[in-house]
Amino acid sequence: MEKEYVTLNSGSKTAARSSKNTKSRRKTGHSKSNIRRSALETKRTGSSRTGMRKVNGSSKSTSPRTSRSKKKSRSRKMDIPVQYIAGGAVLVILLIAIIFAVRSCGISHKTPERVVKALIESYESGNENKIKKCYGVTKADDNLQAEIDANIKYFAAHSPEKIQINKCDKIYQDGNYAFIYITYDLVLKDGQSYPCISTYMTQKKDDNKYYILAPSDVTNDMNKQAAEKYALFMKTDAYQEYTVAYDKFIKKNPGYEEKIASKLS
Predict the structure, then answer these.
(1) Model confidence band, residue 118 (pLDDT cutoffs 50, 70, 90)
(2) Cβ-Cβ contacts under 8 Å for 182 (sequence gap 6 or more)
(3) Within 13 Å and on the Cβ side, how many CA atoms surround 136?
């Protein structure tokens, strides 16, 4: 059956005691000349070896503890932004995931092509609620429900791993009505692709959204015009590409259509 559907060391205190105790001088290695030289260096440079230094005419202590505490405080200040940045990055990723999840749960009605693509994908997943959304109904009438059931069963009979949409475009448009074709492959468990083609009549309604027309909403005049336009469409490259791919599959897999038909009976 053919289906066409991302440390400072301060030594000055020890040196001061060395003038009273020579042993102390020997231990420390400091002499009077060393003290005078230290004082002279202080006058010349404005700084001493006592851990004091002039900063803008005033002196400030730069003890090892103070130096270490400043380094620690700087490191704490630097740690906080990093933590916030990491937390912010996680939040952004979560938001993106939520946005994509919400989008993937919805049906796009912006163009007739989008709603037709959504319908085919919903048939492949067997999601009846999404299928009805494509038609713009919450409860299908008998004719539409029969069509939905038949298509879900047909897709399931192939047991596809996924669906690959190839082309989707208008065959013709008349006002708010657009006749759309879609070619796609049902990727089977053995890796082969079963080519399909489907056509649907769509309508732009008062909410400026496109919906698939239910069979009962398609008039005889629409059917007649669609048949004439489809005959012309069969001469296009899109249709020819489909037929070539289909014939190739059938030659490689003789009896495949019969196997599907037996699952549907």
Answers:
(1) very high
(2) 113, 116, 117, 120, 165, 167, 168, 197, 198, 199, 200
(3) 18
SS3 192: coil
Structural contact between residues 187 and 164, judged by C-beta atoms closer than 8 angstroms: yes
Q: Does 121 fall in a domain? A: no
Beta bridge partners of 55: 58
Range in 97-101, 109-113, 134-138, 205-209 with the lowest mean pLDDT: 97-101
Where in the sequence is the domain holding 35, given as residue range(s)?
12-62
Total domains present in the chain: 2
Is pLDDT above 80 for 257? yes
CA dihedral for 153, 115, 222, 237, sign (positive or negative):
negative
What is the sign of the dihedral through the CA atoms of 28, 32, 33 and 37? positive
Same-domain pairing of 140 and 260: yes
pLDDT for the residue numbered 65: 55
Residue 211, SS3 per DSSP: strand
Q: Which residue has better confidence, 61 or 55?
A: 61
